[in-house]
Amino acid sequence: MQCRTFGRTGMQLSVLGFGCGAVGGLMVRGDPADQERTIARAIAAGVNYFDTAVQYGNGESEKNLGRVLQKLKPANVAVGTKVRIPPGEFGRIAEAVKTSLEGSLARLRLDRVDIFHLHNEITEAGGGSALSVRQVLDDVVPAFEQLRRHGKTRFLGITALGDTAALHQVIDARAFDSAQVVYNMLNPSAAEPLPQNYPAQDYGRLFDHTKIAGVGVVGIRVLAGGALSGSSERHPIAGPAPEPIGSAMSYDADVARAGRLLPLVKEGFATSLTEAATRFALSHPAMGTILVGMATPRQFEDALAAVEKGPLPQAALDRLSALRQEFSGEPR
């Protein structure tokens, strides 16, 4: 398994991380034996980053990951979790953050995590469940730093969702070590300019900002919540289709657009759309590790097989870019 240097942290993380989220569902609603078998297989294959959150199954993902890691006792794995501060707690952010991480550590059976991510959206002015840039830099960062000083986390991170300009500001401030960034075949805007009138949020070459700031990148929504399988069918333990998560505001529209990328498979660049999507996410040098949601051990094996083939060749990236041009001007 290839490892890449994760920003300025010095950590060497496997290019394939293990996503413990609710969309795939394995670590929330899966069979305990499947959970243990898949994590053991991942570790044996060289996967060394495991990503979870209290929001995934109201703590179930953390509990299940903690149970398995306690049993397997692997050496040198990194664990990341997250806090989503509810609006009612915005007046006491430090306390809310501390309480959340303490609960996560108890469920994970750990004394500390390697990365602690803020999971709220970030906008210029805040509002609703989103935090403003000033709240993040003035309130969240000091609270996170205090937890780092107390040995509860090694590194600080954000989930880079919200307003593009606000995300740029927060990353440029260099207060965080990690950013979880949306990057997939339907929305590559973290890396490159989108065609005019393209139906997706434009993340404004966010990778340029993470590189300058020395921020490690965790690739999220690599399969656009499953849409990049090209099928609307979902596994019984998978979470409901998330919206929006790729380019469109609806999951079905993302699935339809994904189907229009099938020439990548028909022309021999990949054996399936999911393989193409996984390898696409690895193709940018800014990417540190990618998270692929899974419902079954088989889906992990598919992700591993894709990663072992390496990034997509330039010819495939050029073909993909041409196919995406056709989406311009369509409604989001």
Describe the structure.
With 332 residues, the chain is an alpha/beta fold. The chain has one domain: Alpha-Beta Barrel (TIM Barrel). It is 39% helix and 15% strand. The protein has an eight-stranded parallel β-barrel with strand order 3-4-5-6-9-10-11-12, surrounded by five helices. Helix 6 links the parallel strand 9 (153-159) and strand 10 (178-182). Helix 2 packs across helix 3, helix 3 (60-72) crosses helix 4 and helix 6 (164-172) runs parallel beside helix 7 (206-213). The relative contact order is 0.14. The mean pLDDT is 95.
What's the short story on this structure?
The protein has 332 residues and is α/β, with parallel strands linked by helices. Helix content is 39%, strand content 15%. α3 links the parallel β4 (49-51) and β5.
Shape descriptor: globular
Relevant CATH superfamily: NADP-dependent oxidoreductase domain
The CATH class is identified as Alpha Beta
Q: Widest sheet: strand order?
A: 3-4-5-6-9-10-11-12
Using only C-alpha atoms, the radius of gyration works out to 19 Å
How many structural units, i.e. domains? 1
Main sheet specs: 8 strands, parallel, barrel
Sheet/helix structural class: alpha/beta
Instruction: Report how far apart the termini are.
Output: 37 Å
Outline the low-pLDDT stretches: none
**Oligomeric state of the chains?**
single chain
Number of strands: 12
User: What amount of the residues lies in strands?
Assistant: 15-25%
Order of helices and strands: EEEHHEHEHEEEHEHEHEHHHEHH
